[in-house]
Design goal:
The protein is of the alpha/beta class. It is 41% helix and 14% strand. The radius of gyration is 27 Å and the shape is globular. Bound molecules: adenosine monophosphate (AMP). Keywords: ATP-binding, Helicase, Hydrolase, Nucleotide-binding.
């Protein structure tokens, strides 16, 4: 049987390479664009979502059209972000692994330019670049584009959103007039149209799906909650989806940090990705996410551009994007490579108008969904656990030696009792947390009142205490993110994440707040602690007041900042802050197995269970209306 890629005109070397990648059949965009691009004499506009197989759609034809006997740049691929640049480069290297003489270079900012210049000097045919660094290299007269025959503008709308219009103009002006330009974009705003008009000659235009239609594999849902309940709603959505692997979008860097920090403290496996992190830190966060050592990536739009991680189950819009067009990019992080995904918006009632605007842009309707009740979450978690127990792989050799003792321990119990106890291990923790869980859906008065009461109950479970601000001689140069520092302090200081307040990560040192009551034991436990063979030092800072309201030098001193640190409903009110995961954390801390003290990136399922709890009765299952 002829390989479907061969049928499209791809040569054996490349066909074998994509076969090794597991590509059996071309995706629709590949099927449509490869034959057109292989002709090599057309400008081209492809309107396609991310994750649809775009890279191979232009990458495979390029490999057929380039003369690999010559070592001069013949194709230039411009894309908006370093991540995407590296991804495209790696994909093309994979596609060309059997193609002799093929050289691809990635040119992007934030990395050593000398190395990139060296690679260029050694001879390359395909340059994959972000606009800023490309211009820098052109400015140094370190590259010769006179032989460029093809320019690919990937995620053109993103490049324009990011303000690269002028850079693109300048770069294109250094390439020959008779080159062919292939433009790919998820959306077609007027600025992209203008590029097509200005730089292209009667381009062949292909639209994958209906124009501006979101990926058909993505379902779109929205939940209406009061602004101050956003964080609780996020946690409930996550708890209701035990296997979630999601990107959570926030508008600002501060929000990503706040949300990630609270999630980490509440025992979730999360971290933030934003532009203030060094490239090394961003790489580290992304690697953890790619390796699925992290369940929730909390990101800004800019930082998440170009993220190419398959199997993301959900995109959660913790806040809606300012630019409605950005929604398409956000949601495109799920539903990739033929998989299905869900894009969720957590909105307040005033934002419904924006949902309608997004619907018009993506040409698809949202489903209004209701947040699951506490009961629903408990039930879902219980059956996820049952499923896990049922499917767990038993290592007969290892477990065998313990079986007699285990049997002994359970001798008094019936099979039913044993099953009940196993199931209760994890279930109790959720029951405990959700026993008084309010209905978070912003709907009827009756529910609203009940919600308020329940919420106050949750918030009231812990009173605000004083914090002490401590200095630590570790920081971002040690490759620490705030989450890493939190784990490090909790693990070595043997304190719970709940006792930690604001973390202010600096370069060679950092500050963090800790509850007054735990300061002494923290100091004791930190005696002799080392990091990379270096003694770790913690000290009280001069400006700590142990709970007063004054702002410290770093702006995070004592109770003042902590109370002001609330979010999701305007940064106000200590009660807001206190409410974060109070019940959940307490559940964790009561656990016998160390509860949420381990922030080392293990999933919550690995952590201890809470005490017994009462189930809140409720028949209000998650519903769609
Ligand atoms: P892209 O849109 O190029 O970022 O591709 C999205 C994902 O789909 C990547 O992980 C690709 O490796 C994968 N992919 C692309 N083309 C195919 C194909 N024909 N069959 C299977 N997977 C593919």
């Amino acid at each position: 049987m002829i390989n479907p890629f061969s049928k499209l005109g791809i040569s054996d070397d490349v066909v074998n390479a994509v076969k090794d990648l597991g590509f059996e059949n071309p995706t629709p965009i590949q099927e449509q664009s490869i034959p057109v691009l292989l002709e090599g004499n057309n400008d081209f506009v492809g309107l396609a979502q991310t994750g649809t197989g775009k890279t191979a759609a232009f990458g495979l034809p390029l490999l057929e059209l380039i003369d690999f006997k010559s070592n001069k740049p013949q194709a230039l691929i411009l894309c908006p972000t370093r991540e995407l640049c590296l991804q495209i480069t790696s994909d093309i290297k994979n596609f060309s692994k059997n193609t002799s003489g093929a050289n691809v270079v990635a040119v992007y900012g934030g990395a050593n330019i000398m190395q990139q210049l060296r690679e260029i000097r050694n001879g390359v045919q395909i340059v994959v670049a972000t606009p800023g660094r490309m211009l820098d290299i052109i400015g140094r007269k370190a590259i010769d584009f006179t032989n460029v025959k093809y320019v690919v503008l990937d995620e053109a709308d993103e490049m324009l959103n990011m303000g690269f219009q002028e850079d693109i103009n300048d770069i294109l002006s250094t390439t020959p007039d008779d080159k062919k330009t292939w433009l790919f974009s998820a959306t077609m705003p007027p600025e992209v149209r203008r590029i097509a008009k200005n730089y292209m000659d009667s381009p062949v235009e292909l639209t994958m799906g209906t124009k501006n239609t979101g990926n058909v594999n993505i379902e779109h849902e929205y939940y209406i909650v009061r602004a101050r309940d956003k964080y609780a709603a996020l946690k409930r959505i996550v708890d209701f989806n035990p296997e979630i692997f999601a990107v959570v979008f926030c508008k600002t860097k501060l929000d990503t940090q706040d949300v990630a920090e609270h999630l980490i403290k509440d025992g979730y496996n999360a971290d933030a990705l934003h532009g203030d992190l060094s490239q090394q830190q961003r790489d580290k966060v992304m690697q953890r996410f790619r390796d699925r050592n992290m369940q929730l990536l909390i990101a800004t739009d800019v930082a998440a551009r170009g993220i190419d991680v398959n199997n993301v189950t959900h995109v959660i819009n913790y806040s809606l994007p300012d630019e409605i067009e950005s929604y398409t990019h956000r949601s495109g992080r799920t539903g990739r490579a033929g998989k299905t995904g869900i894009s969720i918006c957590i909105v307040n009632s005033k934002e419904i108008g924006k949902i309608r605007q997004i619907e018009r842009i993506i040409g698809k309707q949202f489903t209004k969904a209701a947040l699951p009740t506490g009961f629903d979450v408990c039930e879902k978690q219980l059956f996820a656990l049952v499923h896990k127990v049922h499917n767990v792989e038993v290592n007969e050799n290892q477990i065998e030696q313990y079986i007699p003792r285990i049997m002994d321990e359970f001798a008094e119990l019936s099979k039913e009792d044993v099953i009940k106890r196993f199931a209760s291990l994890e279930f109790n923790r959720f029951l405990e947390y959700y026993k008084n869980a309010p209905d978070l859906n912003s709907s009827t008065d009756e529910r609203g009142e009940r919600g308020e009461r329940g919420e106050r109950g949750e918030r009231g479970s812990r009173t605000s205490e004083g914090y002490t601000r401590l200095f630590i001689n570790l920081g971002s140069v040690d490759d620490f993110t705030r989450g890493d520092l939190l784990s490090f302090v909790c693990n070595n200081g043997k304190i719970s994440g709940k006792a930690i307040g604001k973390i202010d990560l600096k370069g060679v040192y950092s500050f963090f707040e800790v509850e007054n009551a735990t300061v002494e034991s923290l100091f004791n436990n930190f005696k002799g602690v080392e990091f990379n063979n270096r003694g770790v030092r913690i000290e009280k800072t001069a400006d700590t007041d142990g709970g007063g309201g004054g702002r410290s030098r770093g702006g995070f001193g004592g109770g003042g900042r902590r109370e002001g640190g609330g979010y999701g409903g305007g940064r106000s009110g200590g009660a807001e802050r206190k409410s974060y995961g109070s019940g959940r954390r307490e559940g964790g801390e009561r656990s016998s197995g160390g509860g949420f003290r381990d922030f080392s990136g293990r999933s919550r399922e690995d952590r201890g269970a809470g005490g017994a709890g009462r189930r809140e009765g409720g028949s209000d299952r998650r519903r769609r209306s």
